[in-house]
Amino acid sequence: MTTTQAWSTIITKLAETSIEMQTVPKTQKTPVWFSASTDGNMIYINRLNRFINSVGDSEMRQILTYRYISGLTWQQIAFNIGEHDEQYPRRKHNRFLEGREG
Fold first, then answer.
1. Contact 40, 66 (CB under 8 A)
2. How far apart are CA 15 and CA 22, in angstroms?
């Protein structure tokens, strides 16, 4: 997707409501989340930290922070939250994201 196409998608979706989007920068393999809203005249792009801080589940906030802010692997995240299996934080993360899309 080109930059123009991405902004066109954002603007079209913003006409209906505030949105949250996942992007994968060309320089990274890890997706970056941001939220966007509009007042009809301007588009407001909110930082990743604001999105993470809005998550109600404290463990999920830790997982998101370790993954997207600190760039840790799933195994490192598991150890940091007291788990031994990398699948635990990865699955919890994936279920969380699937729930946000619906």
1. no
2. 18
Helix count (H) and strand count (E) of the chain? 5, 3
Q: What is the pLDDT along the chain (102 residues), one digit of tens a residue?
A: 676 776 777 777 766 666 666 566 555 555 666 666 677 676 666 667 777 888 899 999 999 988 887 888 999 999 999 999 999 999 999 999 888 654
Cβ-proximal residues to 14 (8 Å cutoff; 6+ apart), any chain: 36, 37, 38, 43
CA distance 34 to 50: 9
Residue with tokens 């939220």: 35
Backbone angles phi, psi at 52, to 5 degrees: -60, -45
Which among 20, 17, 32, 34 has a CA at the least distance from the CA of 99? 20
Give me the residue spans of the domains in the chain. 1-46, 56-102
For residue 7, give the 3-state DSSP assignment.
helix
